[in-house]
Request: fold
Amino acid sequence: MAKEEILEVRLFGAFSMQWEDGTPVYVSSIKARALIGLLCLAPAGTHSRAWLQECLWGRAHNQTDRINLRQALTKLRKEFGPRFDDVFTLTTADVAINLDRLRLLGDRRDGRLLEGIDIAESIFQGWLEDKREASTDLGPVLKQPLRRPEELLPSLAVLPLMAVSGADVESHGGDMIALEVIRALSRSKLMNVVSHLSSRQFQVRTISLGEVRESLQVDYVMSGTVRLSGSHVNLEAELLDAETGRILTSLPFETRLDDLLAGRSEMIRKLSNTIGQAVLSASVELAQNTPLPDVPAHALLMSSINLMHRPDIAPFARARRNLEALTSRLPTHSIPKAWLAKWYILAIAQNWSSDVSVDTLMAAKWANEALEANPTCSFSLAIDGMVQNQNIQQIDKARERFDDALEIDPNNAIAWLLKARLHSFTGSSADAVKCARQANLLSPVDPNRYFFQTITATAYLANNEPRKALDLANRSLASNRTHASTLRVKTIALEQLGEHHEAAQVAQSILKLEPSFCIEAYRKSHPATEFSIGGIWADALRSAGIPER
Reply:
């Protein structure tokens, strides 16, 4: 490692590391991240092995604790590669990080110190609480200028809503609504949401949009007012482009105070969805009206995701062009490559593929490249599982991918959704419904809502609940009328409900879209046909009029 090469570490908000040239360093283990945080903030960057064992694994001082620490350091050595010894110094008594090779980026405005790193050991919890209280001044190493690299996701700040009357109860209500919206939007993996702790510092009437933009480094800002009227809460919310100040959407919302306080308010879901959809629309508009090389990376990705889930082939084709441009611009990033893999899977599912075998290979290629770029990316693991699930012989490998994705990120809605799909195909109906519900809970904002609805419908179909499956299939088709998988779900649900005439009509729609579709082809290509549930579905399709050959 060259002498001038510096490791940049971000401890506030989401933990991340990269070399000074922008090359990321991925650390998958929570305790390994905590270990790095402990060393970065230690005097001289050094702690004893005994204290680290006690802090991260408890007070037992047994052989297991020593093995745990040794294994954590071994895994770090693999993740850092040959640069490990330039950053860390290990002795039989101590572990040290080389502070001369270290630059800490950011400050408490980016979120809490070591946000999301939750370790149950009491010594670690006490250390973290003390450091968070002292995080307003962690030394000159934190005073480096905050550079904002080209972000893959748009960033959003949700400011506390201002009380119309100035009453304390309204102010508290506005703060609580902002917190709930942040919680809802942060479940989505389609945007970076600034923490409530960072956003609420702007809970004053005289703050300017420029101050918010410069301080929080965001692309979009949600603000508004709140007013209590008896037992009801009324608010006006607006989403602003942080650069131009343009209002992207402005809508009134209303809910009952009791529902809001009890966490039952539908308003939060609607407000979060409105904000999310407005960000998506703004990204598409920016990408369409700006020369491709000048489109910010986050707008290019978001517009691609939006375009690839539209029911028409022209925007779908533009999505691939944009994603290929993004992978060329950011060749070391995993996420755009994973979305390209999904693009090819969707091309096959939509019957827009001119050569299914070639597109299947292309999906596998991009999924492999995504994992090569970042083998611990939860989203890329989930998409690779989706690719594996296309092959009847790869179901076990697909299941492993989904499990790995959820171990890294339990809030990965796509992984939960695709796991629901796999459970549906294998006949594990109760697990399918459970996973589908979790996916929908974690994804209040998603441009491929029709896909969530279709797979949830499939889960209910597997669970012998055709009425719920039919309702969700109809809602999905309202957004994407030609999605073949949804049409099959609807046909099967209608047939199982005894509505044979309607099932036959939908079956004819399938044959118009895909004249070569038949039961024999379905049995050869669909993963569910290896299990009993697939035979049940094939019989229903046959009864509705799908030919045998």
Notes: The first helix runs from residue 30 to 40. Residues 136-149 have pLDDT under 50 and may be disordered. The longest strand covers residues 220-229.
